[in-house]
Amino acid sequence: MINRRSVSQAILQVAGFLLALYACVIVAYLAHGPIRLDMARFLPLEEPSIIDIGDLRKPIMIVVALAIIYVAAHALRARVEESPAERFSMKSAARRNGERFITIAALALGAHLFFTVLFPAFWMLATRYHDMEKHMGAIHAAALRVPPGASVLASAAPYYEGFAEDLKADLLFSPEARKDTGSYDYIAIDAKMEPYLLEKEVRPLMLDRRYCAAYASDSVFLFKRQTGTRDEADQCKEKDLPLFNFHFLSFDAVNLPFAFGVDFRLYQYSPRIVRAAFADATPPGYMLYGPYIHLDPGKYMARFLVKFDNGSQGGSIHLDVAARKGSVILGRLSAQAGEYYNHGRWQWVEFPFTIEEENMDDVEARVYHDGKADVFIQEVSIRMSPATFLGMQR
Fold it and tell me: What are phi and psi of 158, to 5 degrees?
C-alpha cells in the first residue's frame, strides 16, 4: 500500500528544490540579463547543447506551477497527520475542498506547462539532434577527401526552426577556434545554413589568403590551407571573389499576383499580412504566382513558408516552378494538408529544380489550391545551390 505521507514528503522535496532552482534562474536573469549557456562546457557532450532564456515568461510560469504543487503537497501532508476528530470537522471539510481545488488547478497548470513548454522543448531537442546527425554526415563525407593525418576544423550549423538568429550564429565556430584557424590543414563548413550565415562564415575564408576553396557541394564546403606554391596560388585565384555570388531571392506572398484567395491579417493588430485560401470558401485555382524573373543556369531550391490551419480536414496545395509563361515546368511538389500539418505552425516546404538553358525567362513560383484546406502562404524564396554560386562542380 502506498504511504501517502512518504509520497507527499517526496513531492515537497522535489518541488522545493525545483522552486529554489528556478528562483535562482529568475534572480540571475534580473542581475545578468538574457541567459545563454552551452552545457557542452560542463558535460561530456560531443555537440553544443544551448540553453537559452530570452525572457522571464517561461521561468515565471514554472515557478507558479511549482508553488501550487508545493502548497498542494503540504496540504496533503497536513491532512495525513490530522487526528480523526479533526478529519470530520467542518473546518477540515472546507480545507479538503480547498485541497481538491488546488490539486485540480495544479494538474491543469501542469498539463498546460507540459504541452506548451516541456513537450515542444523535448521535440525540438529530438529533431535538433536528428538534423545535426544528418548534417554531420555531410561533414564526414567531406572528410573522405582529406588525406590521412590532416587536421580538420568542422562547423555543423543546420537551420533550426524557432531558434533566434543570434543563437544560430553561436552554433558556428567558437571564438577560440577562430583565433587558431591557421593551424588547421582543412576547414569544412556546412553548406545547408541560411545564405547570410553561410556568407558570414565563408567570405572571411575567401579573403584569407592562407586558405583556398578545394571542394563544394550542396552539403559542405571544404577549404585547404595553402602551402605557398605559385601553382596553388594560381588555382585559388581562378575561384576568387568574382565567383562568390550568393543568389537568394525572397518575395512576400502578398506582393505576388493571384487568381483566387485573399490577403489576410492573421491577428487584429499584427502588421503581417499573408496570402490565404479557405476550404469551401475559395474555389480551386492559383492563390499565388509570379514574379516572372530571369535565372541563370544552375541548381536551385524553391522554398515556400506555409501554414495549414486544420490538418484533419484533408485537402492539398500543389507547388511548382515554371518558366516561359507556364509552358516549362522546372520542378513541382504536392503538399497534403494531413502530411504537412504542424499544429498550426509555420514551416518551410521546399523542393529542388534545375535550369540548364541559358535564356530561361519568366520564371515563376506557383501555388495551386484545391479548395479543400485552410492554407496560408507568407513568403516564397529561391536559393541557388552552393555548388552553383561558387562556380564549382561536385
Answer: -65, 160
Domain ranges of the chain: 4-134, 145-243, 248-389
CB 297 within 8 A of CB 355: yes
Using H for helix, E for strand and C for coil, what is the string for 11-55?
HHHHHHHHHHHHHHHHHHHHHHCCEEEEHHHCCCCCCCCEEEECC
Question: Residue 90 contacts by C-beta under 8 Å, 6 or more apart in sequence?
Answer: none
pLDDT band at 270 (very low <50, low <70, confident <90, very high): low
| Spatial CA neighbour of 387 closest among 68, 142, 53 | 142
For residue 329, the number of C-alpha atoms closer than 13 Å in the C-beta half-sphere is: 8
One CATH from 3.30.420.40, 3.40.50.720, 3.30.310.50, 2.60.120.260 for 248-389:
2.60.120.260
DSSP string across 249-272: EEEEGGGS--SS-EEEESSTT-S-
Return the pLDDT at 365: 93
Q: Which of the two residues, 133 and 32, has the higher pLDDT score?
A: 32
| Cα 45 to Cα 50, 62, 233, 253, distances in angstroms | 11, 26, 39, 41
| Residue 337 contacts residue 308 (beta carbons within 8 Å) | yes
Closest by CA to 344, choosing from 370, 314, 375, 319, is 375
Residues 6+ away with beta carbon under 8 Å from 147: none
% the chain with pLDDT above 70? 38
The string of pLDDT tens digits covering residues 196-230 is 566 666 666 666 667 777 776 666 677 788 776 65
pLDDT reading at 285 higher than 70: yes
Are 257 and 339 a contacting pair, CB within 8 Å? no
Q: How far apart are CA 272 and CA 266, in angstroms?
A: 7
372 DSSP 8-state letter = S
Q: Which residues are within 8 A (CB) of 325 and not within 5 positions of it... i.e. 6 or more apart? A: 362
Report the range of poorest mean pLDDT among 43-52, 119-128, 242-251, 365-374: 43-52
Q: What is the pLDDT of residues 138-157, one digit of tens each?
A: 555 555 667 766 777 766 54
190: cell is 556546412
C-alpha neighbours within 13 Å on the C-beta side of residue 246? 15
